[in-house]
Amino acid sequence: MSDIEEIKSRLNIIDIIGKSVKLKKAGRNFKGLCPFHNEKSPSFMVSPDRQMFHCFGCGKGGSVFDFVMLYSHVDFVEALEELAALAGVKLTRGISDSPETHLKQKLYEVNHIASEFYHYVLTKHALGQKGFLYLKNRGVSDKSIKTFMLGYSPNSWDGLYKYLKKKGYDEELLEKAGLVIRSDRGKGFYDRFRGRVMFTLKDHRGNVVGFAGRVLNPEEKEAKYINTQETPVYIKSNVLYGLDVTKDAIQKERVSVVMEGELDVISSF
To answer: How far is CA 153 from CA 87, 108, 125, 135, 140, in A?
Structure first.
């Protein structure tokens, strides 16, 4: 049995689509309002017997893989990996073991740990008190701090670097992730972000791809904001801050409001 067949055998399309679309029993099938176009009368049908969906209004349809690709705006490989994880299927395809895929997974991993480090410093450590007070003065709630995984980078040369080294990550990976910078002399590394409130940047699937750091003092001579350099997982023009949090509401309402900065997004949300 192929990976695709194995996944289909373990998952029920009703359960997968039902997480995103309110479905009602209609004979042997289920129906609901189509998530791909605006409608008042349900024309979106899902067949548990055929394990297929079809909208008689916009014409979109297919298997559970097609639904995930359309709904989550991902390609087939991403849909396959997402559904394989839900089904508990270990993929045997070579693409998942490619060097490029392995590197991206390691970058997601180390970025996630860095976001936890920054968040801990902000919310639990005395070093993050300045950043915490700054956010509170800007009206940011504790819930928003947690929802958007806000953090603070200690005002030291190598706090994050030493932490991640203890976790077993090598300098080459940390440099590729844009978390550290090699010194001019070529010996040693230092943290890219120091003494800044940290905004965790995620893709639409919730993977941590990078960071934006803001200085607390507007009179600082340094740049007000600095971002992670472009990496294999972070291309600035491809990332819309907060989309991982707001995508379900946007999909439901079919409306989005684009804000100028991260704090604008957080305060509006």
So the answer is: 38, 19, 11, 14, 18
Specify the pTM.
0.75
Residue 228, strand partner residues: none
The amino acid sitting at 199 is F
Structure tokens at 106: 């390691």
| Separation of alpha carbons 24 and 18, rounded Å | 9
E strands, 123-234, are: 151-153, 180-182, 189-191, 196-202, 208-215, 225-227
Nearest to 164 by CA among 92, 112, 217: 112
Residue 146 to residue 135: CA distance in whole angstroms? 12
In this predicted model, what pLDDT tens digit does every residue of 75-134 receive, in sequence order?
Answer: 888 899 889 999 999 887 555 567 888 899 999 999 999 999 999 999 999 999 999 999
Tokens of 159: 């706090």
Q: Both ends of the chain: CA-CA distance in Å?
A: 45
User: In 3D, which of 81, 77, 93, 35 has the Cα closest to residue 60?
Assistant: 35
Quick one: 254 exposed, middle or buried, by C-beta within 10 A (0-12, 13-18, 19+)? exposed
Rounded Cα distance between 215 and 197, Å, is 7
pLDDT of residue 96: 55
Q: Which two tokens stand for residue 201?
A: 């940047």
**28-81: pLDDT as tens digits:** 999 999 999 989 999 999 999 999 999 999 999 999 999 999 998 888 888 998
